[in-house]
Amino acid sequence: MDDNYPTAVEPIGGDPQGQPEMPLLTAQGLSKAFGGIQAVQDAQIDVFKGQIVGLIGPNGAGKTTLFNLLCNFIASDRGRIIFDGEPIQHLPPHQIALQGMIRTFQVARVLSRLSVLDNMLLAAPHQTGERLQNLWWRSHLIRKEERHLKEKAQVILESVGLAPKINDYAGALSGGQRKLLEMARALMADPKLMLLDEPAAGVNPTLINQICEYIQQWNQGGITFLIIEHNMDVIMSLCDRVWVLAEGQNLAVGSPAEIQANPKVLEAYLGQ
Amino acid sequence: MEIGYFVSLALFTTIYALFSLGLSLQWGYTGLINFGHIAFMTIGAYTTIALTLPGFLKEMPQRLIEAYPVLQGQGWLLQLQTILPEQLPLLVAVMIGAGLAAALGLLIGISTLRLREDYLAIVTIGVSEVVRLVALNEEWLTRGPRGVFNYPLPLANWAPSLPVKLAMILLLTLICGWVIWQLWQWLGGQPQGPQRHQQGLLRLLFAGYAVCVAGAALCWWFAFSLSLTIQLPSLLQELLLMVLRLAMVLPAVICGVGIVYARLEQPWHQGRSQPWATHLSLLTLTLGMGLMVMFYGAEVMALYTYSYKAGLLWLLLVTLTVILWQMETWVSSPWGRVLTSIREDEEVAKALGKDVFSYKLQSLMLGGAIAGIAGAFYAWQFDLY
Ligand SMILES: Nc1ncnc2c1ncn2[C@@H]1O[C@H](COP(=O)(O)OP(=O)(O)O)[C@@H](O)[C@H]1O
Ligand SMILES: [Mg+2]
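A: This is the predicted complex of the input protein with adenosine-5'-diphosphate.
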């Protein structure tokens, strides 16, 4: 097994780049089988605060499944997940989201028959108006909150260039715009960690560059990222660290340059 | 009398409007497919009646023991009999009925909401069938197919004075006016801004509509008096009446459709490229507005000469308005936004930190409670004296 884990098994504190002590997200021994298919097996991943971490691997490697396990969208068979110092593997998905870990989907999922603005407003956590009883007693506070959230949504939408579409139905957006909206929406949820599943898939090259810029901007604003991506340029330009998954298992971890030079990774991508 | 017929029709329509309001919350807003909504209504109806019929509730343990002799030795059942009240006030009974309907929603929800939509649909059909069978067969509970009679009705032996009647008519007018106004605003708010040249057309159509409605009323009255005075062969008379009515109602319908389309402010050639569903909904809207004008007229006349059903219809309309208004505030709030997000894609709602299960329960329970209230009115509109 050891040769399958070149650096993944190395103790975290001993990282040459002098990582901060405590990872924001750490998962160990995650496993999930779908019937006979072992989609994820004993996978490990660490994401440190303030980093942009990549997760790569060939198609069917189990990356999306790993995301689903991290957010508890799919219950894991085994494994431990610690987020921000607290174990979260027993929490339902919505509570994990409320803790500050927000995911996007591989195929962008916007709420088609809601306006772009409503898509954004929905994402804000802990709204007073989300409780039915408050609608009677706190209507004033709710209106104030809504105003505040609308301003916030407007600012975010402007920063990603979706402001002209604010009152359109989200279903009327193009594929790339949907990806943008999904990320902007995740941003509305005040995440500590954003899990992006292939943010650049099916997006034109200009927009890919823009998306990379946005991610860097948001990262500087204090949000940590874990990104699944097939586009190596994106990985190279964005990531501080890259985890490689193949056939559900950790294959390698390291800086983007190290990963690119790793023969095992090449072999996994190109086949035996 | 034809007025009575129209009041009954309006009563039925309004009861089902209230009923579908609950369904709209569950299915329309939250996307919970529910084919068994009638179960909520059944529970609301039977509960209200069982709690208000004098002595019915009190004797229930007795009837239960008779139905199931196994329970003979159970002392607590007889004790229950001494605690149970003779009858409850109508309002309290309706509240409890709505509460039990909500409890059914909770039950269905907890047991099935973790299933996918289609399974939920199947279960709701099953539950409604179970409720129907229980109502039919558990005679100690509902008297089964023999039915329940002579239960108390709201405002039944009430004879309002003229000022009260006028106040009721005024409130009714305000409600109807508000609804028409809302529809009107909604139509005008649709895409394609107002166009000046259609203002004149609109006025013309309105005048036409008014003339037609007045004409229809006149003709109705005339035909009615005609049928009293002249003895024509009945078939001929029927035919004559039909032709007379069509001659007056048809232009009104045409004018009504014209008004709706003109308000929409779309050039005709653009309107033709709209999908048929748009036209269908516009025609339905016209029909709804027309029906409302008709029902309004009938109800005003009925209230003036006051009958039980007129009073009940008035009460129901007020209830419907209050519930509709409440529901509008709910669904346009952040709470309602979460419901619609669940309808659109519940995984997204979950990923954004919304407790989908809890919201589904709330929607099912509230929708059920509304149907329960509709059930009470459904029971009350049978005046089985
Ligand atoms: N819900 C599921 N049911 C059965 N098999 C699944 C399910 N989700 C994923 N898989 C399988 O698990 C493996 C990993 O899939 P996935 O995580 O989507 O890969 P990727 O790395 O391309 O995102 C694939 O073989 C896939 O067929
Ligand atoms: Mg994937």
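Chain B has a mean pLDDT of 84. The CA atoms of residues 273 and 279 of chain B lie 10 Å apart.
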